[in-house]
Design a protein that fits this description.
Layout lengths: L12 H6 L17 E4 L5 H11 L3 E6 L13 E2 L2 E2 H7 L3 E4 L5 H12 L3 E4 L5 H5 L3 H7 L4 E6 L14 H7 L20 H24 L4 E5 H7 L2 H10 L16 E5 L4 E5 L3 H10 L3 H5 L6 H6 L1 H12 L4 H10 L4 E3 L3 H6 L1 H5 L3 E3 L9 E3 L27
Parallel strand pairs: 1-2, 1-6, 2-5, 6-7, 7-8
Antiparallel strand pairs: 3-4, 9-10, 10-11, 12-13
Length: 401
């Protein structure tokens, strides 16, 4: 007898009715159109998560302290309209000012959560429990709620209640130890990768939990630790340590396992060259008019090139000293070699490729004239591409009703 094919599990009626695909859904607004997010987060890790959800079409209602709001509102740089830093990760959201220690405001908050799909918070573990809105209570009261927590060290382990900032987890998570020039001091990554990575993982977990709820009708808790997120980014460093026993350290701009692959000095300026395989290495030798390198047994494979990186780099940079970075880029691009100039932020924002992809957006409000924010890097064929960013909310601009 032929085995009976297992039928896929049908989503409960309630889950189908409240899913993003329910009546009124408009794909042009994003795949999360119809999803409502209550956002209790502040500063960066949590707001970055909810910004991503907002970019994908969710309605994000930011709950802030009356009077002062999110601490990021007081962090510069500032424009006439307020903090550009706050605007950069809170664009498109709504704001409700509530004091969760006051009975009237608690009632308003509970009405808000009752109609929501997702709650995101980035308090230190234990804070939500003290307020009476911890996961266990929330699960009983709102069983379909996706409850997302972002914290420094997560909701388990010996450091559970310890406070953390981006710099703390960059240091503890090993990222600083492999960043910088050889022999130099541990260096912070130039962007807040501790916060941002946690926010990205939290957004991914939120979407996964929404999908699970669509299938089961039940909410879930998503617990993301900033330290965990840093460890998850150590892919190559962990692989090198466990296979060699040697603790990785900073190696500047070059790749630890591919050569030549990094930033190289020219007559004037640096150029990035990424010759990631033998064929590209031979093509690079042709462009540099160095056929002897292609036939040199010390450089016959990527493994050998890595072992002899310093010698190979010196030979390449001697050749590159004949022209400036712009001249070499023209030659390298003509040969279809992966290469790039080393841009500063001003050059990035002005670049035609960045502009063509709508990744440097003006804020659609006169009070933010001249202010640009990063656009949404998640392009979808069904989602309307924004050419302007929605402004961030004024504190308490959404009524409590």
């Amino acid at each position: 007898m032929a085995a009976r094919r297992k039928q896929p599990r049908r989503a409960p009626t309630t889950a189908r009715r409240r899913s993003p695909g329910a009546g009124g859904f408009d794909a042009r607004r994003g795949p999360l159109d119809g999803v409502t997010v209550v956002d209790l987060t502040r500063i960066l890790s949590g707001p970055y998560c909810t910004m991503m959800l907002c970019d994908l079409g969710a309605r994000v209602i930011k709950v802030e302290r009356p009077g002062s709001g999110d601490d990021a509102r007081s962090i510069g740089p500032f424009t006439a309209a307020g903090s550009a830093y706050f605007a950069s990760v809170n664009r498109g959201k709504e704001s409700m000012a509530l004091d969760l220690k006051q009975p009237e405001d608690r009632a308003a908050f509970e009405r808000l959560v009752e109609g929501a799909d997702v709650l995101v918070e980035n308090f230190r573990p234990g804070t939500m429990e003290k307020l009476g809105y911890g996961w266990k209570r929330a699960r009983k009261r709102w069983p379909r709620l996706v409850y997302v927590s972002v914290s420094g060290f997560g909701d388990s382990g010996p450091l559970r209640t310890r406070p953390a900032y981006d710099m703390v987890v960059q240091a503890m998570g090993g990222i600083m130890s492999i960043t910088g020039e050889p022999g130099g001091k541990p260096t912070r990554v130039g962007t807040s990768i501790g916060d941002i990575a946690a926010g990205m993982f939290a957004a991914t977990g939120t979407i996964a939990a929404l999908r699970q709820r669509h299938l089961t009708g039940e909410g879930a808790r998503v617990d993301v630790a900033m330290l965990d997120a840093q460890v998850a980014l150590l892919e190559n460093a962990i692989a090198r340590y466990v296979t060699s026993g040697e603790v990785p350290g900073p190696i500047g701009s070059r790749h630890p396992s591919i050569t030549p692959f990094g930033a190289f000095e020219t007559k004037r300026g640096q150029v990035v060259i990424a010759a990631g395989n033998d064929a590209l290495f031979r093509k690079l030798c042709d462009v540099l008019a160095l056929p002897q390198l292609a036939s040199d047994p010390r450089f016959a494979s990527n493994t050998l090139r890595c072992a002899n990186e310093a010698v190979l780099r010196a030979a390449i940079e001697r050749a590159l000293a004949a022209h400036d970075a712009a001249g070499w880029l023209a030659r390298l691009e003509a040969a279809e070699l992966p290469c790039a100039p080393v841009h500063d932020v001003a050059e990035v924002l002005a670049h035609p490729q960045v502009r063509a992809r709508h990744m440097a957006l003006p804020i659609a409000a006169p009070e933010y004239a001249g202010v640009l924010v990063a656009g949404n890097p998640m392009k979808m064929s069904t989602m309307r591409e924004r050419k302007q960013a929605k402004p961030p909310p004024k504190l308490g601009s959404r009524p409590r009703g």
